[in-house]
Design brief:
A hairpin with a 7-residue loop joins β1 and β2. The chain has 2 helices and 8 strands. The chain has about 120 residues and is α+β, with helices and mostly antiparallel strands. α1 runs antiparallel to α2.
């Protein structure tokens, strides 16, 4: 897995855009590029209810993001430095999670979105 040093420009939870619960962490990389990390659907469509419903996966992603960034409100992580973990190079870089800098956490705590989905995502 590749890692890129980044500074967080903003972070939000969103639902008004198309009614799908998502999160976005916008980062500015050390090399001068910027990227939005997230955009993952944190809820699912329920055919019986004909509406979107919350999921354990969505709740766990939000919970782990708040713990990882040590904030009560996701917006409060603005200005933090992190490594963005992902696959690919250049413009083909696909973020998969975050890692703390050693100076902030000598254990280099990580949050990896695919691992959370594996544990809490739909089992269907």
């Amino acid at each position: 897995m590749e890692k890129k040093l980044a500074k967080i420009g903003s972070a939000t939870l969103n639902i008004k855009d198309r009614g799908i619960l998502t999160f976005w962490v916008h980062v500015d990389y050390e090399d001068g590029c910027s990227q939005g990390v997230g955009g993952l659907a944190l809820d699912n469509w329920d055919e019986d209810k004909q509406s979107r419903v919350g999921t354990a996966y969505g709740c766990e992603i939000i919970r782990q993001l708040l713990l990882f960034f040590n904030v009560d409100n996701l917006q409060d992580c603005k200005g933090q430095y992190v490594y963005v973990l992902g696959e690919g190079k250049g413009l083909a870089f696909t973020p998969k999670g975050f890692e703390k800098l050693y100076v902030d956490d000598f254990n280099r705590k990580q949050i990896l979105f695919p691992n959370i989905f594996e544990e809490f995502g739909d089992k269907e």
